[in-house]
# Entry
Amino acid sequence: MITLYDHPRSGNCYKVRLFLALIGVPCRREFVDVLARKNQTEAFERISAWRQVPAIEDDGLALWDSHAILLYLAQKRAPQWLAPLPHSGQMYAWLSVSSNEIANSLQPLRLTRVVSHAEAAHHLGVREEMLDLVGLRQRTDRLLERLEHRLTQQEWLAGVRSVADLACYGYLSLAEEAEIDMRAYPALSAWRRRIEQLPGYIPPGHAG
# Structure
């Protein structure tokens, strides 16, 4: 069985939990208390090179990074979630949006709302006085505007449903925790509902 090194409040961990649920693959969840720095050990580094969650162990393979895990699981267990040509390039492009634009806007903005600014600064690797809350909100607003525009044109980010949708959904499912009013983004909200209606869907707070 796959072992998932997990934290229940992490959007990146949620992406992996959600994908495993959607494809019907059970896992053994191993809680990693990142707030208590339990990931900052040499033992955990043997599983996750950057000492980050999520990470998995599967058939003797240790793998970290949520997007690498999604692609690995899709290739091994659920190839229907890999966009075929000509959509595959768009799938990788939207995975990049999750790793870059979302990771540098909505993801840290939400973090500043759910933990203290000092704790958020620690996880972001900056001094507390370097937190740019105004800039984070501006980048988040631009991100949401671009996603809204995209999703008024098509139902799925890559043109067909793919792991890129789940990669972006991880933190977009938590937008309200960043004090975002999603009523301003009807197409984006409809896309979230499409994911939430998929068989096997679990919400972010699901404990199973």
Notes: The mean pLDDT is 94.
